Amino acid sequence: MAFDGTWKVDRNENYEKFMEKMGINVVKRKLAAHDNLKLIITQEGNKFTVKESSTFRSIEIIFELGVTFNYSLADGTELSGAWALEGDKLVGKFKRLDNGNELNTVREIIGGEMVQTYTYEGVEAKRIFKKE
């Protein structure tokens, strides 16, 4: 599938402002901007496995399209939501458990890169990954 493979973060767009809107403190924002995030994605039918490794942590997330699950961001923010496949995009709709606000994420392949777009409270940011 298009998302299968090992993806390493290459650059960010508006990521600092996004993290600020999420309430992440300045020290964590500075560190997160250079977290060397790597994602290893495998898809089997509707089931995805994402191995996430960064300066902060290494975790494995397993989810099925359309099935709600809980997830913790690297800063400890708890989310609940689900991923769906809409055309050639993976669309994640999540709610923060602490305040109920929505965090939406879209993963898509553009020009051989995986672009992950986050939207939270009107602020949009992108993390662009290159395939290793």
UniProtKB/TrEMBL annotation:
Molecular-function GO term, any one: long-chain fatty acid binding
Taxonomic classification: Eukaryota, Metazoa, Chordata, Craniata, Vertebrata
Record PROSITE patterns: FABP
GO BP terms in the entry: intestinal lipid absorption
Top-level division of the source organism's lineage: Eukaryota
Protein name: Fatty acid-binding protein, intestinal
Transmembrane segments: none
Originating species: Ovis aries
Function noted in UniProt: FABPs are thought to play a role in the intracellular transport of long-chain fatty acids and their acyl-CoA esters. FABP2 is probably involved in triglyceride-rich lipoprotein synthesis. Binds saturated long-chain fatty acids with a high affinity, but binds with a lower affinity to unsaturated long-chain fatty acids. FABP2 may also help maintain energy homeostasis by functioning as a lipid sensor.
